[in-house]
Amino acid sequence: MSAKNNFLTQTTENIRAFFRLLFLYRSAETENVSIEITTYCNFTCKMCYKYAYKIGDKHISPDVFKKINSELPKNIKKISLSGLGEGLMNPNIINYLHLCREKHPKALLDFTTNGNLFSDEITEDILCSPVDMVTFSLDTISVPIPEMGHKADDKIVSNIKKFALRIKECGSGIKLRLQSIVFSKEQVDEILEFASSIGVSIVNLIRMDTPSDMMYSRLPIKKFRDIFKRSRKWGKRKKIYVISSGYHSLPMRLASHFDKICLQYHNFLYFDVDGNALPCCVLRNYSFGDIMNLSLNEIWSSIKASKFFKKQRLLCKSCDVWRHSYSH
After folding, report:
1. Which of 4, 66, 159, 268 could disulfide-link 118, Cβ–Cβ 3.0 to 4.6 Å?
2. Interior/surface letters 113-140, b for 16+ CB within 10 angstroms, e for the rest
3. Residue 153: what pLDDT?
4. Cα separations (Å) of 290 from 108, 152, 316?
5. Are 78 and 31 spatial neighbours (Cβ–Cβ below 8 Å)?
6. DSSP states of 49-95 as a string?
7. What's the average pLDDT block by block, 10 residues per block, for the chain (328 residues)?
């Protein structure tokens, strides 16, 4: 797809999403899913919900994955093999990417990784897979950050550089995205320069969000916004798309009814390793249904899913991942 057509398609999708949210209705079918293929992780990050909620280690079963994949709509737009775990710890991840592509040739496929497990073999496997984008969670290169962030790790930085180089060498169309929690201007500047040096397409700047019983001090909201706006301007000059779910333009603020509804849920579902369809990775006990017992259409059109969309403010009052302002 040409850059012009891609821009027009994205603009059309944004307009559709805006009016959906503004008038409080969801897409006719699920358009965007995250499938949690594992809850195993080789890191123990203090800010992660996996450890706050004491989520055990488990891989999704092949039967559950195949059932989810078979139920996804024909025109599904995005499939992300990501969740509360390190995707590369599931030995079936490459096979799962191929299964998704066979069933959904037009969907954008991606997964998120901390980059620690990359090897020459894994790199080549990923390059030969149908994945469209790989997201690396990277909070710093060398600038000191608080203990709850992903610490600087020379091995991870080297792995990311090597992977980016191999993408260029083999002419792969895989896009790279960096995902970073914002702690300081200096830390973000370092991440942006690193992104520019290796050919990253997107940098996602995340606001620290923690469970209510694991409160850490966060940047003042004004400081976060200043850092993001400055970074976005830098990104335009470098042709890197700098985004954040925690910063809303005026149209986005209108669409969210000024932080009363989540900007994600209107077309999104999250499947945990057991096949439960959830609003997101955090609301682990709020299942709309089990994919092994219900069709996706039954889950998406269920009374419980519909009620959640209308009453989400009550259930999500402590979460501000997709809000313009802090909720706590």
Report:
1. 159
2. bbbeebeeebbeebeebbbbbbbbbbbb
3. 86
4. 24, 39, 22
5. yes
6. HHHHTTPPP-BPPHHHHHHHHHHS-TT--EEE--BSB-GGGSTTHHH
7. 50 82 88 96 85 89 97 95 95 97 96 95 96 95 85 90 95 94 94 96 86 64 94 94 91 89 89 95 91 96 88 80 80
Helix (H, G, I), strand (E, B) or coil at 243: strand
Give the model's pLDDT for residue 1: 44
Residue 158's Cβ-side half-sphere holds a number of Cα atoms within 13 Å equal to 6
Query: Residues 117-141: pLDDT tens digits?
Result: 999 999 999 999 999 999 999 999 9
d(CA 60, CA 294): 17
Q: Measuring CA to CA, which residue among 162, 200, 158 is closest to residue 179?
A: 200
Give the dihedral sign, CA 197/202/208/211. Answer: negative
Sign of CA dihedral 119, 124, 127, 131: negative
The type of residue at 19 is F
pTM as predicted: 0.92
Cβ atoms within 10 Å of 3's Cβ, excluding its own: 7
Amino acid found at 275: G
How far is residue 257's CA from residue 322's CA, in Å, rounded to a whole number?
Answer: 12
The answer to whether residues 138 and 192 touch, using CB atoms and an 8 Å cutoff, is no
Tokens of 167: 């993408």
What angle, rounded to 10 degrees, do the helices at 120-127 and 154-170 form?
Answer: 40
Cα–Cα distances (Å) from 30 to 126, 180, 268, 328, in that order, read 27, 27, 6, 30
Distance CA 175, CA 161 (A): 13
